[in-house]
Amino acid sequence: MSGTNELQQINNRLDKCRHKLAAAKARNDRPVVNQFEDEIKKLTKKIAQLKHKQSYDVNQERKALVDMPFRREITKAEQADMGKLKKSVKGLVVVHPMTKVGKELRLEVMTGFAPKKF
Fold it and tell me: Coiled-coil region(s) at which residues (predicted)?
């Protein structure tokens, strides 16, 4: 399961637990309230761990791209035929500014990173 799907499922479970906790508090059912409070703490901790792992992974990818010796903007003509461009440049990584890595790098336009000049 991907990280985003797992995060979404945990958020859904957390939301259900919060609703059930509110209902249990309204009934004044102490054992059930304690159970849901423990479950909410556990789910909140798991969400924090997953978000930290995602940010760590994005940061590692960003560092790898910044360490590449050459980068430049991808022109519209090159964007139109990406397959040809990727075949001609070995090790090319194209980053769109709307992706997590693109936002992390604060890119304005689609940019290519490569070990050699292209």
Answer: 7-53
